[in-house]
């Protein structure tokens, strides 16, 4: 297992092969990140996430909200979601992320983890609605959490800690060859908001 952090080098590829991941560290001041967190926590239209697993329809403790330029249809875990019109704060964050990443996004999947016991299992973001090999920009607000990647064939893993106000970029063939996850932990009792800005094409 490789563990990254200390002083982030935004040009360093955290993956050893078959993809590209760049960690920029915090891109907002602490006050800005705090303000964004409080606004999104109280104003986004959060709802329990849904999935169909082995034919059973389940609801998670983790909550989600889906926003975009248009009412895009997005399907994952067997459930179709329709994007809501942008919240103004999400738009401001998107503009900053686009400037830093030099990419353009038309949608954002937002996740709310209430505390450390809520996480995300190994998966890749390879849904047919997403731009092929498009960049996914992930913003963390709130509690910092450990985040991992695992190669689909070699099973090699890479971990880092995502800080409050930080930006992580997943690029190129990363989703083809690597899984990622947010492991649960008993050490975190504060909420975390994750914003994943994406480009939807097949709508």
How do the helices and strands line up, and which of them pair or pack?
Blueprint: E1 2-4, E2 20-26, H1 30-43, E3 47-53, E4 56-68, E5 73-76, E6 79-82, E7 84-85, H2 88-101, E8 107-113, E9 120-123, E10 136-142, E11 145-151, E12 157-162, E13 166-171, H3 174-177, E14 178-182, E15 192-198
Parallel strand pairs: 1-12, 4-7
Antiparallel strand pairs: 2-13, 3-4, 4-8, 5-6, 8-15, 9-14, 10-13, 10-15, 11-12, 11-14
In words, what does this structure look like?
The chain is of the alpha+beta class and 203 residues long. The chain is 16% helix and 44% strand. The protein has three helices and 15 strands. It has helices at 30-43, 88-101, 174-177, and strands spanning 2-4, 20-26, 47-53, 56-68, 73-76, 79-82, 84-85, 107-113, 120-123, 136-142, 145-151, 157-162, 166-171, 178-182, 192-198. The strands form three sheets. Strands 2, 3, 4, 7, 8, 10, 13 and 15 form an eight-stranded mixed beta sheet that branches. The chain has a five-stranded mixed beta sheet with strand order 1-12-11-14-9. A hairpin with a 2-residue loop joins strand 5 and strand 6 (79-82). It is globular. The mean pLDDT is 91.
């Amino acid at each position: 297992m490789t563990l990254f952090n200390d002083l982030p080098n935004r040009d360093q590829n955290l993956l050893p092969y078959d993809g590209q991941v760049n960690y920029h560290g915090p891109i907002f001041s602490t006050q800005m990140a705090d303000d964004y967190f409080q606004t999104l926590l109280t104003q986004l239209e959060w709802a329990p996430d849904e999935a169909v697993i082995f034919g059973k329809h389940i609801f998670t403790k983790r909550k989600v909200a889906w926003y975009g330029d248009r009412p895009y249809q997005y399907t994952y875990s067997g459930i179709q979601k329709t994007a809501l019109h942008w919240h103004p704060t999400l738009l401001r964050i998107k503009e900053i992320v686009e400037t830093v990443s030099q990419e353009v996004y038309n949608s954002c999947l937002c996740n709310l983890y209430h505390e450390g016991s809520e996480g995300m299992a190994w998966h890749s973001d390879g849904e047919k609605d997403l731009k092929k090999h498009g960049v996914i920009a992930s913003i963390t607000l709130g509690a910092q959490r450990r985040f991992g990647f695992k190669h689909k064939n070699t099973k090699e893993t890479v971990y880092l800690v995502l800080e409050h106000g930080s930006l992580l970029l997943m690029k190129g063939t990363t989703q083809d060859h690597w899984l990622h996850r947010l492991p649960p932990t008993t050490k975190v009792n504060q909420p975390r908001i994750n914003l994943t800005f994406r480009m939807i094409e097949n709508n």
